[in-house]
Every structure is written in structure tokens, then in C-alpha cells.
Amino acid sequence: MPAAIVPVFEGRKEERFGAGDLCDAGEITGKPLELTLLHHPPGVAATRVLLVGVGKAEKLTPGDLRKAVGAAARHLKARSVKKFAFAATPECNTADYLSAAVEGAILADFEPDRYQTSNDKKTLEELVVAGAPDEKAVSRGRILGEAQNFTRVLVNEPGNLLTPSKLAEAARQMAAEFHLECEVLEQPQMKELGMGALLGVAQGSAEPPALIVVRYRPAKAATQAHLGLVGKGVTFDTGGISIKPSENMEKMKYDMAGGAAMLGAMRAIAQLQPPIAVTAFIPCVENMPGSRAQRPGDIVTAMSGKTIEVINTDAEGRLILADAITYARRQGCTHLVDAATLTGAVSVALGHLNVGLFSNDDGLRDRVLSSAKQEGERMWHLPVEDDYKDYLKSPFADLANVGGRHGGASTAAMFLKEFAEGTPWVHLDIAGTAWQDDNKPFLSKGPTGVAVRTLVRLATGWKD
Ligand code: BES
Ligand code: ZN
Ligand code: ZN
User: Fold this and answer.
1) pLDDT tens-digit map of 351-392
2) 317 CB less than 6 Å from ligand 1?
């Protein structure tokens, strides 16, 4: 094997591989993400041993290990080492750690350079997990890592190449490959269903909208619950007539990250086969200021019957989600989770570190939060009490689509809550976390694929 990745713990001297001297000298400390590459180390078959610090043994979480293995894999990849083994130690030989290690390596492999034409691209070719591995855990890690990368590939696609129809086509392909049912609602059906909020956003673009529905049904359900996953699929957000400034507008190709996260989650769910029905709903539009575009002041009627005054056409995500949420409820979903790059305001509140989480149901909220914690995805609960409705008052319609300058992430969530009505619902605002501007040692810059692992954990760990 060209290389073995070996975790080293802080405060514990590594005596193998002739590393003892380096520990004594203070070069190897075991601090998180510290990397030491040893060539031709004594006592092992591998040509190289890459020691990666993972911090104190008693504090090690699967999330720490995911990052450590990711950083090690990227270090090796940068040196053209494409095949390596991960040597599990007794501290990290349980299922969650092994899955995380495999995920770390697979996530480390993604690069956003698909459209660069050079032919010397480096990719990882082989990962072996050594040391009595649990095959099921390794396979779960592979499924999750690949699902998250599938999401990242979609999010990275530019708006000209990934239109609503193309996103629907990608969903159809994925569904066929993993034996899921896929249905795509088009404009005439949307009209029939009265999806005025979604159609209002779509009308400014020459690209037709699509509502992607992907269904997973278990062979044997262990629950009556039916989980609905609703993801924002704006393939490009110019802002519409309330047009965005040109600076950074190119980033608005990632405004379908919520939808892509749902497709990634469905891809993994299809393989892991949890005993609960799960359906993904992804309303897809391009938000453009074309000659037929909706105007500020327009009033649209949503599928639920509520009328909406469109004050700002750039607050389009909540409009398309409103109709998708109503549709999901009518399709019999008993629990809803949506993910959306919904507001700039969530980054003002939480920076780029935490997903903003809102809910009308404490039970579902706690389950999503604990799934997130187990998966090492940071999410923070923010308020969406009914009092926020006051911010959304319109003199002309049932509600306005924006709520003024203050509390933008909460007023956006409040808007969605009006359409979730009595159904237990969690909203994840991933605008601050779905894209990262800089490389991390363990993850390339670009799309992160946030929320995929949490959603899969929620489904696979479902208990009534
Ligand atoms: N897609 C944006 C939100 C966004 C902003 C995502 C930055 C990622 C990075 C959304 O459609 C939007 O434009 N929201 C407005 C709402 C405002 C008009 C109330 C915003 O956040 O500025
Ligand atoms: Zn917008
Ligand atoms: Zn948007």
C-alpha cells in the first residue's frame, strides 16, 4: 500500500514507525489536524505513514475523525498518492467512527474544478479500512460520503447548465439508478393545482419551472409517519425585478442547495432502506427579471388559498416553498423538514458556522438537532413565534413576502410556518453554510453538501 493514515492522540506518545523521537522533540504533538508524513517507516508494509493528530483520546468525536481523515486524504492527494489505508485504532473502531472516517476520505476527494480542462487532475482511487472493520459501517460511510458529494456536484453546476429542467433530469436519473419513484410536475399541472406563488416566481424566466417529487417507500414500514423533505431549487437567483447587485451575483447558482441536499439524502435513503416513507419535494425555478416577470406589489394566490403581496421579488424562495409545503401536506406527509438558502440574514445572525433551525414542534426540532449533533453538522435553534406574523402584515393581501429590516431569518421562517399550518415542521436556513469561500484542510472550497447527513440520520433513526 502506498500509504497508511494513522491517528495520533494528544498526550500519548506514538512509539511505532520510529516516531518516538519526533514526539520527544515536540514535532508530533497529536493536536487536531497536525500532519506528519513518514517515508519508509520501520515495521510496516506501507511505503508511507501519514500520522494525523486527532486531539485528546477521551474527547474524540466521529466529527473530529471525519475532519482528520479528510485532511490526511487531501494531503496525500496533493502529493499524488491515490491509494491508502486507514488504520483504525481501538478508540475509533466503532460503527460511527468508521463511517465518519470513510466519509472524511470521500468528502476530501471532491473538487469544484469539473469544467477546467487540464488532464492532470488528481482523484483518490482506493481506500482500505484496516483493523477489524465493521463492513456495514464502512458501507454506510461510503453511501453517505457519495450522497453528499452528489449534492455538491449539483450545487456547483452553473445556472446555464443546470436549469430547472436539467435538475429534474438529474433527479430522474438518480431515482432510476437507485430504484426510487420520480415524478416531475410541469406548468400546466401547477396551474391546475393553483400554485400561484411558485408560478409567479417562474414567470420572469424563459426556463419553465419544475416540481420534482421523489418517493421512497419501505418494503415494510415500521411507522405510519411519512417524512416530507422540501428543498429550495432556485437554479439561479438574480433577484428578479428587485434585482441583486452584480457583486457576487455569480454565487447565486448555489440557490438550489436545499433541493440538491434533498436529492442527496434520498440517494442515501434508497440504499440504507429505513422503515419509514420519505418523499422529497423540490420546487425548481430560475428567478429572472424577464418581460413577463412579476412586479413588486403583485398579489398572488398560493395553493393553500392564502393571498400574498410580493413586496420584494428577491424573496422568492419562500414563495416557491409555500406551494411545495402545501403540496407535501396534501400528499399526506405527517412531518416536514425543509432546507433552503433562504436569507442573507441567517449569516448575519450565525456567520458561516451554523445552520439556522426553526420549528413549530419541539419534538421534531429536538430530533433534527440530535441527528445533526451525531453527524457533526452544526445547527442552532432560532425563534419563529407567532408574534413574528406582525412583521408580515400587508394592507392588501393575507400576508407580505418580506418583513422589513429586522429579524430577517425569523420573518422568512414565519412566512413558511404559515403554510406548514398544523403539520410538525422544521426549517433549515442553509444560506450561510451551503457554500464555503475558502479551502479547509479537510474540504475543498465551494459547495459543502450541508444537511444531507442530518436528514439521512433523521430518517434512518426514526422512532415514533
Ligand atoms: N437566495 C437569497 C438568499 C441568499 C443570500 C442565499 C446570500 C445565499 C447567500 C434569497 O432569495 C434572497 O434574496 N433573500 C433576500 C430576502 C430579502 C429580500 C427579504 C435576502 O436575504 O436579502
Ligand atoms: Zn432571492
Ligand atoms: Zn434565493
Assistant:
1) 999 999 999 999 999 999 999 999 999 999 999 999 999 999
2) yes
Phi, psi of 261 (to 5 degrees): -65, -40
Ligand 1 atom at minimum distance from 345 CA:
21
* CA–CA gap between residue 373 and residue 359 (Å, rounded): 17
How many whole angstroms separate alpha carbon 451 and alpha carbon 427? 11
What is the CA(314)–ligand 2 centre distance, in A? Answer: 3
Cell numbers for 319, please give them.
Answer: 414563495
pLDDT greater than 90 at residue 438: yes
Dump pLDDT digits (tens) for 302-329: 999 999 999 999 999 999 999 999 999 9
The C-alpha atoms of residue 233 and residue 286 are separated, in whole angstroms, by 8
Length of the chain: 464
**Residues 4-29: tens digit of each pLDDT:** 999 999 999 999 999 999 999 999 99
Question: All 3 cell numbers of residue 436?
Answer: 464555503
Given this model, what pLDDT does residue 116 score? 95
Model's pTM, two decimal places? 0.98
pLDDT one-digit tens code per residue, 161-200: 999 999 999 999 999 999 999 999 999 999 999 999 999 9
**Residue 451: its pLDDT value, please?**
98
Q: Kindly give the pairing relationship between strand 48-53 and strand 210-216.
A: unpaired
- The C-alpha angle 54, 58, 64, rounded to 5 degrees, equals 35
Q: Indicate if ligand 1 lies below 6 Å from the C-beta of 314.
A: yes
Q: How far apart are the C-alpha atoms of 414 and 425, rounded to whole Å?
A: 12
Tell me which H or E stretch contains 435.
strand 435-436
List the residue whose alpha carbon is closest to atom 17 of ligand 1.
315
* Spatial distance between the Cα atoms of 154 and 284, rounded to a whole number of angstroms: 13
Q: Indicate if ligand 1 lies below 6 Å from the C-beta of 157.
A: no
Phi, psi of 379 (to 5 degrees): -135, 145
Residue 176 neighbours by CB under 8 Å, 6+ apart: 182
The span from the CA of 333 to the CA of 330, in Å, is 7
**Residues sharing a CB contact under 8 Å with residue 119, sequence separation 6 or more, in sequence order:** none
Helix (H, G, I), strand (E, B) or coil at 416: helix
For residue 220, what are the β-bridge partners? none
Which residues are known to be catalytic? Answer: 244, 318
- Helix 317-330 and helix 408-420, axial crossing angle in degrees, nearest 10: 30
- The CA-to-CA distance between both ends of the chain, in Å, stands at 46
Residue 346's contacts (CB-CB under 8 Å, 6 or more residues apart) are 356, 382, 408, 409, 429, 431, 432
Residue 78's identity, in one-letter code, is A
